[in-house]
Every structure is written in structure tokens, then in C-alpha cells.
Write a sequence for this structure.
């Protein structure tokens, strides 16, 4: 009789040990992962914002991705004079970077839209893009609703609002570090 | 709790639920697909491409749900030696892998017209790809041994360790700059989506959930039958051995002292 009770309690003790082992292991693993991701954050980010570029986080000639909003009224197409390239300004509403791109733009490209461009800075601080991707925001809306809001004068391109919202926005604001 | 840890009782409950899950899921799927593909408005920017979302989002959510289920099952197997936990994890893995694949493919097809590219190595897309590899790795490890029971423990450990990837997927779009947008549904201000798009999405989510649980029940029965078959086979072998030993004295001296 006494042997069965000690057998049971030792089984229970083993279960408890295993529970703590698993929980403790997971805790350590979570901490290690968190530290690692925080340490490599600059390498894992998909793009740098204009503020980070102006701060000098990337060297001239180094290939990186630049992300932000296409500034209103900044798109300029010199046409044949410049090999059909498009010039525009990428902004995070704090700093601006001028971009030159000769190639096919995604359909969503327009002023006020979020974009991510791959390329490098030249000596004049112009970003020469090899590829431009459009970034989509998290807002979905039927076209009629947009029309109605435009008529009522309450329409505002959502990404501008998001970027102004800072950290809670679409991620264009410079990361607070 | 322990009532459902009994595999026999659990299977009886699953049996009763199964037809409801199947027919309910199919009905929701038909209604959801009709609403999503024909009876919901296009998006003001993406136009009809937005309809991919009604497949992409439910499969992404359920793929992660399947992983969480797999990890919890594996943890309960490691800690309390619940045989059901291991069976649950083994059943959930291929379904989760398929859902992850659906999520990646639909996302890629959506990305080309919207972003201008099928694939980028941003934190969200990469962590989702890692989820697929975790599912595949789990299945490979769980079935790597001649005696399937030997694969239980290493596979369970992999499943539990891999759970760190789930919060990474979730928070990747907030912690890192990603090309992938942030969550539309889970925001402080509520979903940034009108009701005529949210309704089909929720119906599709319900359909995917029902069909996921149905598939899980089907696979669970298969895994359960496999274990029983192995037990019966082992029992037969043992009986044959004891019968052989009982016959042995008449046939001649066998190394009985060693036994």
C-alpha cells in the first residue's frame, strides 16, 4: 500500500518537474529569441525610412531599400530628356529623399501611396532605384464609399494619417530606439 | 479534463460532431464564397484582387491555430504523457502545412498585382515560410523511425520549441518595417474594413474553422486506428511468443534460463 502511494507521488513529482522544465525552457527560448531579434533588428527591417537615411544610417553606394510615402506633387517625368525616368520624393513627413527610377511602376504607384524602392544613394544624395514596389495599407474600402467621402470632403488618403500617427502608423515613422 | 483525455471517449464525441462540422462547413463555404466572390464590393485600390483576401486571411489564421494546437498537444504529451496530445499533434500537422501553403500561394498571387512582386524577404513573409518548414520538419521527424513511437518525443520537442515563431509572425509587421501591411482586423480602433467586406470574411473564417475541425477528426481517427493496430499486432506477437515458449519444453530444451 505504502509503495503504491510513494509510486504515485513520485510520478506526480516527475510530471511537475517536466512541466517546470518545459515552461522554463520555453521562457529561456523566448528571452533568447527576443534579444536576438532586437539585436538584429536593423538587419531584419525590410526598408529604411527617409529619416534614417538622412541620419546617415546607410553609406553612399550601399544597396538598401527605401520606404515611405510618395510626396504629394513630387512626381516628375522629364520624359525622353532623362531616358523616360520618373523622379519622385519619398517622405515620412519628417525628412525627404529624392528618388530616380527608370522602369515599370506598379499599378498602385501614385502620390500619397506607400512605396518601397531598392537601390542606392549617389554622391548628390539622390536615391537611384532599380525596383519600386507599392506598399498596401491595412484599409479596405469599396470605391463608392471613397467617392462619397470625397464628395463630403472627409476623404483623406489613409496612409498619410497613419504616417502622422507615428509609431502606431504604417511603419514609416522612424523607429523609436 | 481527464474525461476527454481518454481517447475512446474523445473519439465518440468527435464522431458525433463530425457530420455537423462537415455539412455546416460546406454550407458556410458556399455562402461565404458567394458573398466573397459575387456579392461584395471591390476595393477602391485593388479592385477585384481584394477577393483573394477571403481565402488568404482565414488560411493564415487557421494555419497558426493548427500550429498552436500542435504545440499544446505536444506539450501535454511531453509533460503528462497524454497519448491524445501526440495524436492531436500528428493529426494537425499536415492540415496546418496545407493551410500555410495556401496562405503563401494566395499571398504571392496577390502580391504580384498589388506590390509588384511575388515574393520579398520581409519579416512577415519569411516567418510564415518558417512556419511551413516547422510543419514539414515535424512530420519528417515524427515519421523518421521504423518504430513510430520513437519519433514522438523529438517531434514533440520540435513542435514546442517552434511556438516562438507564432508571436514573431504576429508582431513582425509592428516590430520591423515590412512590405506586408499591418493587421486590418485586430486594431485598437476596430477593423478598418466595411461590414460588406467583413461579413464574407467572417463567414469564410467560420467555414474554414468547421472544415479544419472536420479534417482533424478524420485524421485523428486514422492516427487512433494506427495506434490500436500497432497495439494489437504487438499483442499478437507477444501471444505467439508465449505460446511458443509453452510449447518449447515438449520440443526440446530452449534457453529458458536466459529468459
Amino acid at each position: 500500500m505504502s509503495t503504491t502511494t510513494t509510486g504515485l507521488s513520485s510520478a506526480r513529482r516527475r510530471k511537475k518537474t517536466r512541466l517546470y522544465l518545459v515552461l522554463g525552457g520555453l521562457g529561456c527560448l523566448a528571452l533568447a529569441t527576443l534579444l536576438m531579434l532586437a539585436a538584429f533588428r536593423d538587419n531584419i527591417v525590410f526598408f529604411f525610412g527617409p529619416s534614417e537615411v538622412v541620419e546617415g544610417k546607410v553609406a553612399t553606394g550601399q544597396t538598401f531599400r527605401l520606404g515611405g510615402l510618395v510626396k504629394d506633387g513630387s512626381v516628375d517625368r522629364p520624359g525622353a530628356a532623362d531616358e523616360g525616368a520618373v523622379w519622385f520624393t519619398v517622405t515620412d513627413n519628417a525628412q525627404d529623399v529624392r528618388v530616380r527610377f527608370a522602369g515599370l511602376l506598379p499599378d498602385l504607384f501614385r502620390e500619397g501611396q506607400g512605396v518601397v524602392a531598392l537601390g542606392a544613394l549617389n554622391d548628390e544624395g539622390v536615391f537611384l532605384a532599380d525596383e519600386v514596389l507599392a506598399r498596401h495599407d491595412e484599409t479596405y474600402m469599396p470605391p463608392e464609399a471613397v467617392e462619397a467621402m470625397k464628395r463630403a470632403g472627409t476623404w483623406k488618403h489613409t496612409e498619410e494619417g497613419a504616417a502622422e500617427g507615428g509609431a502606431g502608423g504604417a511603419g514609416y515613422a522612424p523607429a523609436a530606439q | 479534463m481527464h474525461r476527454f483525455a481518454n481517447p475512446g471517449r474523445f473519439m465518440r464525441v468527435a464522431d458525433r460532431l463530425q457530420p455537423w462540422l462537415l455539412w455546416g462547413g460546406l454550407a458556410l463555404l458556399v455562402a461565404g464564397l458567394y458573398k466573397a466572390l459575387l456579392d461584395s464590393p471591390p476595393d477602391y485600390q485593388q479592385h477585384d484582387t481584394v477577393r483573394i483576401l477571403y481565402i488568404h486571411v482565414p488560411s493564415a489564421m487557421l494555419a497558426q491555430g493548427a500550429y498552436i494546437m500542435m504545440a499544446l498537444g505536444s506539450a501535454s504529451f511531453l509533460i503528462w504523457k497524454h497519448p491524445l496530445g501526440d495524436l492531436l499533434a500528428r493529426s494537425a500537422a499536415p492540415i496546418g502545412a496545407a493551410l500555410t501553403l495556401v496562405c503563401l500561394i494566395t499571398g504571392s498571387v496577390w502580391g504580384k498585382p498589388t506590390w509588384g512582386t511575388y515574393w520579398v524577404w520581409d519579416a512577415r513573409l519569411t516567418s510564415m515560410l518558417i512556419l511551413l518548414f516547422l510543419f514539414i520538419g515535424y512530420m519528417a521527424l515524427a515519421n523518421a523511425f521504423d518504430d513510430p513511437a520513437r519519433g514522438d518525443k523529438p517531434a514533440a520537442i520540435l513542435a514546442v520549441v517552434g511556438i516562438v515563431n507564432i508571436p514573431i509572425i504576429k508582431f513582425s509587421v509592428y516590430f520591423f518595417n515590412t512590405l506586408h501591411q499591418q493587421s486590418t482586423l485586430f486594431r485598437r480602433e476596430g477593423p478598418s474594413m466595411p461590414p460588406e467586406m467583413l461579413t464574407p470574411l467572417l463567414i469564410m473564417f467560420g467555414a474554414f474553422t468547421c472544415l479544419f475541425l472536420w479534417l482533424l477528426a478524420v485524421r485523428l481517427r486514422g492516427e487512433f486506428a494506427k495506434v490500436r493496430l500497432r497495439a494489437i499486432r504487438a499483442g499478437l506477437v507477444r501471444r505467439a511468443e508465449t505460446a511458443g515458449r509453452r510449447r518449447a519444453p515438449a520440443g526440446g530444451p530452449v534457453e529458458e534460463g536466459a529468459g
Q: What stands out?
A: Confidence is low (pLDDT under 50) at residues 158-177 of chain A. Chain A touches chain B at residues 15, 18-19, 22, 25-26, 29-30, 33, 37, 41, 44-49, 67, 104-108, 116, 131-146, 158, 168, 170-171, 175 (CB under 8 Å).
